[in-house]
Amino acid sequence: MSSLSVAMKVAVIGSGISGAVCASTLARNGVSVTIFESGRGPGGRMSQRREIGEDGKELMFDHGAPFFSVSNSDAMALVHEWESRGLVSLWKQAFGSFDCASNKFLGVQEGDANKYVGVPGMNSISKALCHESGVQSMFGTGIAKLEWLEEELPWLLKDSKGEYLGRFDGVVASDKNIGSPRFTQLTGLPPPLDLNLVPELATKLQHIPVLPCFSLMLAFKEPLSLIPAKGLSFKNSQILSWAHCDSTKPGRPTDSERWILHSTPDYANSVIAKTGLQKLSNETLHKISEEMFKEFLCSGLVSSLPFFMKAHRWGSAFPAKSIAVEERCLWDRNRNLAICGDFCVSPNVEGAILSGLAAASKLLQTSSSL
Predict the structure, then answer these.
(1) Is CATH 3.90.660.10 the right assignment for the domain spanning 67-71+88-121+209-320?
(2) What are the sequence ranges of the domains in the chain?
(3) Could you tell me whether strands 330-332 and 337-339 are parallel, antiparallel, or unpaired per DSSP bridges?
(4) Residue 7: what pLDDT?
(5) Could you report the per-residue pLDDT of 300-315, keeping only the tens digit for each?
(6) Count of alpha carbons within 13 Å of 224, Cβ hemisphere only?
(7) Helices 17-28 & 349-369, crossing angle to 10 degrees?
(8) Distance in angstroms between the alpha carbons of the first and the last residue of the chain
């Protein structure tokens, strides 16, 4: 490895699994990496939510991706490494499908050998990768401006206050909204990336269709014994898409039974059509909680009322199409700019992993040719 590649400085925007995998891969190859994450911690859609019940006890919820599966050999190699480090484990529970029209189960299958979860939370993987040697992580730091300067260390990054955050040789953005009008809808600010800088990528980045959803976190004192599976998809429901019993995952506390419900995209879109993408009021979130739980209750599967209930909006979490299936990431070699995420390959964790690996590969090829 040359001293030039060791000195290469790369900014990674976003600490979801795609950004975290990219950052870790770069750092292991001698690149100096800084992660910028607007949230309080890593994980993106693989975040873990910490809530406090009325009794003052802590409740943990994987309110985004409930588990992931892998089939690609590159992704599998990483997962096996994470497994050896105690970061992931198989989740061997029965899964089923429930028809809300007939109020009957359509079938239940025993747990297979390809459902992985982070331990003790889905964010455990990103958390570990973001703290590896060679990776500096800046949480609570959103990027508001990416400026290109025609000089050494050409990328200059600023936050929403105009504060200078550093200069870099290359940038990896794992946020699909980095150059999208949706960023303005969410924040009221112009997108951080001026697409005029990357005209070849502009058309793909400008309008990435997304599927929103709401998640509902529920905690019960007693097990929901009428449900013969710990994960189920819903058929013929306008409101619910699926449910998973979070507390049955390896490494989770078992002092309560915790379930996560996810809404259908149509239900989420109907709410967003009325409320927009700005922060929702507690009153609106409470109404959504009531509507989602009522649908769950009408299934006849719920044998007791929850002692904790709270909704969360994933406004643009799920990509509706893939924009770089073959390349696995978007790449502008003139700017040393990579765009990665599940929206590039496939709308799941494996897609995000493969995209992060591809983005790292592009930058490492650049560093080796310096």
Answers:
(1) yes
(2) 1-49+122-207+321-370, 67-71+88-121+209-320
(3) antiparallel
(4) 66
(5) 999 999 999 999 999 8
(6) 27
(7) 30
(8) 12
Q: How far apart are CA 42 and CA 14, in angstroms?
A: 8
Enter the DSSP assignment of 56: S
The DSSP string of 168-223 is: ESEEEE--TTTTSHHHHHHHSS--SS-GGG-HHHHHHHH---EEEEEEEEEEESS-
Helix (H/G/I), strand (E/B), else coil: 306: coil
Task: Quick: pLDDT tens for 16-56.
Answer: 999 999 999 999 999 999 999 999 999 999 999 999 998 89
Class of domain 1-49+122-207+321-370: alpha beta
Backbone angles phi, psi at 308, to 5 degrees: -140, 140
Portion of the chain with pLDDT greater than 90, in percent: 85
What's the rounded mean pLDDT across residues 273-300?
A: 95
- DSSP E strand stretches across the chain: 9-13, 32-37, 49-52, 58-61, 88-90, 95-99, 104-109, 116-118, 135-139, 145-148, 155-158, 164-168, 170-173, 210-220, 231-235, 240-245, 257-263, 308-319, 330-332, 337-339
Reduced to 3 states, what is the DSSP secondary structure of residue 340? coil
DSSP-assigned states of every residue in 116-152: EEESSSTTHHHHHHTTSTTEEEEET----EEEE-SSS
User: How many Å apart are CA 287 and CA 289, to the nearest integer?
Assistant: 5
Position 195 scores a pLDDT of 94
| Model confidence pLDDT, tens digit, residues 151-177 | 889 999 999 889 999 999 999 999 999
- 124 burial level (CB within 10 Å; 0-12, 13-18, 19+): buried
pLDDT at 218: 98
* Spatial CB neighbours of 93, under 8 Å, sequence gap ≥ 6: 111, 115, 229, 230, 231, 245, 248
Residue 4's pLDDT band (cuts 50, 70, 90): very low
